[in-house]
């Protein structure tokens, strides 16, 4: 997959090489430190998240309506950094095109939503594309069957991938690698792209999360293979690599991008043309997906909403419609 290979593995996680990944200080360890990362902090986060998701799985009424999305938003708000706003609704770009209908994570420290509804998760918001950190397609049950029942077509892997691709095709100005803060950049060539990372600072991040997974009976012993086949079908149908989901977490299956390095695998936060998509069974998939999401958010540097252009447009419209008088103070 991702223009190269697609692998299915039954390992419970991704092995990392001794070399550092993505220029991170110290790189990726070959094995967890004694006692786990940060004295087991990482593992405890995953366990807490899994407890939240187990509660959701027990509520059969979440199959229909917005209840699952709202419950998932509450879970996200518990574990994401405070700057990450969470709402339901559409991502809208500067041209007016809007996509998505599920969960949007945006930079609440810098940007408002377009409706300004705050914490009311019952009503969908519109969020400017420049403000979006991540988009999540949420399903109660994700169908990875060769023939999905007609009533469940909207819950299929193929449909979810198409919705993710639609969001990723929205327009927003790229933030170059050399930018370290809005309007502050290093010299050209000062920063080089690391293998398996995007060529810009504000790539789209989009994921598919599902509490449960449905596969054909013949693949019940290897559900990761079922998900892989459906994603491969989406790719063959013409979806570009960078428009595929960055993560699929469904039941016990996790799909994540990675690169091969020194005979091992190093995970990556985004799907790029030089990453592979690895499909794994036996995962605490949603807990791992939350860690992956947090990593991606930490890596993203968003651009700016075109405030100057918007204000200039308002001034011009006022002058055209009301004949505003310009007064200059010297």
Automatic annotation (TrEMBL):
<protein>
    <recommendedName>
        <fullName>DUF6602 domain-containing protein</fullName>
    </recommendedName>
</protein>
<dbReference type="InterPro" id="IPR046537">
    <property type="entry name" value="DUF6602"/>
</dbReference>
<feature type="region of interest" description="Disordered">
    <location>
        <begin position="1"/>
        <end position="31"/>
    </location>
</feature>
<feature type="domain" description="DUF6602">
    <location>
        <begin position="63"/>
        <end position="170"/>
    </location>
</feature>
<dbReference type="Pfam" id="PF20247">
    <property type="entry name" value="DUF6602"/>
</dbReference>
């Amino acid at each position: 997959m991702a223009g190269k290979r697609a692998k299915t593995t039954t390992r419970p996680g991704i092995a990392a090489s001794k070399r550092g990944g993505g220029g991170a200080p110290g790189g990726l360890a070959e094995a967890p430190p004694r006692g786990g990362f940060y004295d087991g902090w990482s593992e405890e986060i995953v366990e807490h998240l899994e407890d939240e998701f187990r509660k959701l799985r027990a509520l059969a009424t979440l199959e229909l309506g917005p209840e699952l999305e709202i419950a998932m938003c509450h879970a996200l708000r518990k574990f994401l950094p405070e700057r990450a706003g969470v709402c339901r609704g559409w991502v809208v770009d500067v041209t007016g095109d809007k996509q998505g209908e599920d969960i949007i994570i945006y930079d609440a420290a810098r940007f408002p939503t377009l409706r300004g509804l705050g914490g009311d998760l019952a009503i969908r918001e519109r969020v400017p594309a420049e403000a979006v950190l991540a988009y999540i397609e949420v399903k109660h049950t994700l169908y990875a069957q060769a023939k999905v029942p007609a009533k469940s077509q909207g819950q299929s892997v193929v449909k979810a991938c198409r919705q993710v691709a639609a969001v990723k095709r929205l327009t927003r100005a790229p933030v170059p690698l050399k930018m370290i803060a809005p309007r502050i950049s290093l010299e050209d060539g000062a920063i080089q792209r690391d293998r398996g990372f995007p060529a810009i600072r504000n790539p789209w991040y989009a994921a598919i999360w599902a509490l449960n997974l449905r596969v054909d009976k013949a693949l019940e012993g290897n559900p990761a293979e079922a998900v892989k086949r459906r994603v491969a079908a989406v790719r063959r149908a013409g979806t570009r690599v960078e428009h595929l989901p960055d993560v699929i977490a469904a039941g016990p299956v996790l799909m994540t991008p990675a690169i091969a390095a020194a005979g091992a695998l190093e995970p990556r936060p985004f799907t790029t043309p030089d990453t592979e998509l690895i499909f794994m069974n036996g995962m605490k998939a949603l807990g791992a997906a939350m860690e992956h999401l947090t990593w991606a958010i930490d890596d993203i540097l968003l651009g700016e909403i075109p405030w100057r252009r918007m204000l200039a447009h308002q001034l011009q419209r006022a002058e055209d419609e009301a004949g505003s008088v310009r007064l200059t103070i010297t």
